[in-house]
Amino acid sequence: MTRPSLVERLAGPDNLLGTFNLIPSPEVIELIALAGFDLVIVDMEHGPHQLGQVHAAVLAADAHGLATVVRVRSLDPPAIGAVLDLGASGVLVPHVESAADAAAVVRSARFAPEGERGANPWVRAGGFGARQNWFADTRRDVAVLVMIEGKNALADLPRILAVPGLDAVFLGPVDLSHALGVPGRIDHPTVLAALERAVDLAAARQLTAGVFAPEPAAAPGWWRQGVRLVACGVDTGLIRSALCGAVAVAHGRDQR
Questions:
Q1: Do 109 and 139 contact (CB within 8 A), yes or no?
Q2: How far lies 44's CA from each of 30, 64, 70, 103, in Å?
Q3: pLDDT digit string (tens) for 8-29?
Q4: Residues 16, 102: Cα–Cα separation, whole Å
Q5: What is the biggest distance separating any 2 CA atoms in the chain, rounded to whole angstroms?
Q6: Structure confidence at residue 253 (pLDDT)
Q7: Which of 5, 57, 127, 147 could be joined to 131 by an S-S link, Cβ 3.0–4.6 Å?
Q8: Pseudo-torsion of CA 59, 143, 39, 155, nearest 10°?
Q9: 212 with 20: CB under 8 angstroms?
Q10: Is residue 140 over pLDDT 90?
Q11: Is 17 strand, coil or helix?
């Protein structure tokens, strides 16, 4: 039985749980899959991943039925095409500031006539030339997500949400807190109000909203507010927390 694509899952009724991956290691990807996450966001913007390491991450994720979204470093059409050629389930583009930016992301991720992505059917995503109808099928198979994390993006959000071809908007509270003058205070009322307004606007357009939540305990609250995709934590932080907890238990220290 064929698994639903990430595009189909984002459009469906289920809540999705992900996490960010900074460590370029297939074993870490496998651990994320075995833990039960729905997807992993392989982070090229803040992590040291190169294309070969993204390739290894996608292979490891595919082996375990884990969806892979690659956050590229910028709105760079060749970079977007390159990670999708490797077989990533989707692409996440940071610092999208306007509807024009969002439309450029869609063009970079879609083949003609919807977009301008470079076409080569002999790449891994095309089954090395063996996939029939691959160019047509990518609209169903490749998820396009843009990050909303600045003042300009908030101001132009209604127009961004109306851009055809987007599968989700992803809210970045850390950068947003800096843009709104309260650096790092992602629970500040100003930041929370901006996030909640963005979620409501996305819901009104029937477009999936995602959000980064550093603490896993925050995920249920976001789901109740209508967020469909929560990326809780980063692999480095989650591993550090687990290791610190193990040391505390071994030494009999109170973890409260």
A1: no
A2: 18, 21, 7, 21
A3: 999 999 999 999 999 999 999 9
A4: 23
A5: 63
A6: 80
A7: 127
A8: 140
A9: yes
A10: no
A11: strand
